[in-house]
Amino acid sequence: MTIHPTKPFDGQKPGTSGLRKKTAVFMQPNFLENFIQATFDAIGGVQGKTLVLGGDGRYFGAEAAQVILKMAAASGAVRVIVGQGAWLSTPAASNLIRKRGADGGIILSASHNPGGPNEDFGVKYNMANGGPAPESVTEAIFARTKELTEYAKLDAPDVNLTAIGESHLGEMVVEVVDPVSAYADMMEEIFDFKALRGLFHEGFVMRMDSMCAITGPYAVEILENRLGAAKGTVVHEMPLPDFGGMHPDPNPTWAQELMAEMMGDNAPDFGAASDGDGDRNMVLGRGVYVSPSDSLAVIAANAHLVPGYAQGLKGVARSMPTSAAVDRVAAALGLDCYETPTGWKFFGNLMDAGRVSLCGEESFGTGSDHVREKDGLWAVLMWLNIIAARGQGVAEILSEHFARFGRNYYSRHDYEALPVDQANAMLNDLRDRLTALKGTQSQGLIIQSADEFSYTDPVDGSVSAQQGFRILFEGGSRVVLRLSGTGTEGATLRVYLERYVPGPAGLNEDPQEALAPIIRATEEIVGIRARTGRTGPDVIT
Ligand code: G6P
Ligand code: ZN
Questions:
Q1: Domain of 503, in residue numbers
Q2: d(CA 105, CA 88)
Q3: Tell me, what's the pLDDT at 530?
Q4: By mean pLDDT, which of 90-104, 197-211, 317-331, 336-350 is the weakest?
Q5: Is residue 536 a contact partner of residue 529, using CB atoms and an 8 Å limit?
Q6: How large is the average pLDDT for residues 272-277?
Q7: Is the peptide bond before 504 cis (omega within 30 degrees of 0)?
Q8: Which residues sit with their C-beta closer than 6 Å to ligand 1?
Q9: ipTM of this complex > 0.90?
Q10: For the domain that residue 105 is a member of, what is the CATH number?
């Protein structure tokens, strides 16, 4: 039997990056099947199409891949290119879609959320350009999930996904590929591998923490096998269904093992970590943490040193809450600089239209138009290539950067799992007072403007309203507040704090101290602690 009756499930609305739910929710009979059928229907079916399939190795990924293969075969897809073991990092999937001219792809991941039977699972559809489906498509998927009465799935034994090669599932070809090689080859085209080999040959020591997630095999192949970094450079290199109990989110809180090593005695020269599906990154020097906003600015200022960008950048883009450090670089280099809402999908149009080649977000995402997703290992290789070309360490590169462009002190404070009503009431109240804030003073800081960010896409004219509150102080400091679109429990309030110091004095302060007046002013204006009863943020980046 190929056609199976079903009933709609509530709550199959894809969020910022696909549908994410507790694994047990996904494992309910027909839940995954419904979502996949709705996806196929929303894209006009998969008859005659070629798809890419893979994920970050988390619990239920291999089983989900079998279901999707049987459904694609039943709906007439001609070929599915799947990573061996159902593994593909998100940027590698994006690359395969583009390189192989596929019609789209399905990525099995809940990104940086923990994995396992009691944690999270996710499914995301990417388009032929290799990027996440735009809202028009995710809305169509959601609409379809509400009216499904049946789905198609071939009755067939599981496909062997452990061996590379082709087999048939009904009429459809299943092509199992090495998940790493095409991606590693692309990196070899972008970066100066010869210079990087030289760096490691001279004794440069690096630690890459793959957090028991998907970048392990990629990092071992690229850093250790192709670039000659010492064996053991990559730690937690084996993707595990529950990520070994780690929370694979590369930030100072969750990558604390790496943080401790980089801040301790005998720290390596360079440290990096990536997330569950390999699109996020954190980079560190010996004793120095590089904030994602600064990382983007440094990469923009030095990209011309990397062979893939030797001809210069087309333009740059950052999400609104990301610091304006990259704007200063863009101004100095005469590059266009775009400010978009949070979410990588907003960069896709700009890249497809050839307006930008480098993008980044404060949420540990950096990438370029080599694919249509952010790319963790790419960012790590950018830094390595810049270090090799400049012959300087991370600390020196950062301090020269600040001396040239000034420093945008920056930090994000997260208040997690707030009662949804409480968080909404607090922000609605702020919205009501926004216009009245202009010209008032708080903690000696004068409010120059206060508004709610709205974005008009310069390529297709679409408008995204209510994308976060901005309070700008005279002198270039600001605070941005928005609710997370990816949290799974209650509401997460993100408070983004920024203060610009032109230098030469005052470039070496501790960010929390440099931002203290803005933190106090924010409390006075918004009343986060007073209203929530919290004594401080849960996460500081
Ligand atoms: C995902 C997206 C990013 C985005 C981030 C924001 O990781 O891929 O592009 O910046 O979510 O998450 P938030 O929880 O702040 O909405
Ligand atoms: Zn991710």
A1: 407-540
A2: 11
A3: 87
A4: 336-350
A5: yes
A6: 97
A7: yes
A8: 16-17, 111, 319, 342-344, 361, 363, 365, 484-487, 494
A9: yes
A10: 3.40.120.10
